[in-house]
Amino acid sequence: MTDTLAAFYTLHRDLPREGPGEAADVAWAAQAAGLKARAEIADVGCGPGGDVAALLQAAPQGHVTALDKTEHYVQAARALWQADPRVTVLQADMARIMNPYDMIWCAGAVYFLGITEALKMWRKSLRAGGAVAFSEPCWFTDNPSSEAQAVWAEYPQMTNAAGIAQRVTDAGFGVVATRKLSDAAWEAYYGPLEARIAALRPQADAALQTVLGEAEAEAAAWRKHRDSFGYLLTVARPR
């Protein structure tokens, strides 16, 4: 593991979530998808399990299978949910979902696969009438500032709402509904992250100082340019 990657995991270890989101997003997606109380849900790229409680609330008599490839996220999610029989936490690749589900939930991680590619992979794991709900970085303006573009320079595939919808269509799915993630959803991520930055900074080595500075700059850029970019939550269903 490189010093930079180790520093990244030091910063992100024990955070309640690994990206923007709030319980209201899950509730909205569940309603849009017509989710039933006994639904079987896959939470793919689950991180430390920050959305599991909201998914259980959406399907209180159902079951959530949460999976992630990163071991310490899996350990964190298991520590929270191992006593609940309604939850199974797996260390697994979200590109290889094996069981059938009524909804596949993917908060901020679909970009690892690509929207079209992910939906095509996941289609076989959707029960009849099932849906995929995913959040994806999105431009909300046709002319983002250079600073905003710099934040997403490592993700050149980033597009606008129409571009996301086209990628959904290209996978043979249709868009059921979309929702822009709220400021509260972003603060639910950046608030704990900034508290951890402050706690780590006094004893941080050079590699960690660099990672802390990058994370701080990312949060500042979002607050300054939140009208230009954010996450779009999309519920999609096979055609």
From TrEMBL:
Transmembrane segments: none annotated. Residues 41-130 form the Methyltransferase domain. Pfam families: Methyltransf_25. Keywords: Methyltransferase, Transferase. Gene3D superfamilies: Vaccinia Virus protein VP39. InterPro entries: Methyltransf_25 (IPR041698), SAM-dependent_MTases_sf (IPR029063). GO terms for molecular function: methyltransferase activity. The keyword Methyltransferase applies. GO terms for biological process: methylation. CDD domains: AdoMet_MTases. This is SAM-dependent methyltransferase. The lineage of its organism: Bacteria, Pseudomonadati, Pseudomonadota, Alphaproteobacteria, Rhodobacterales.
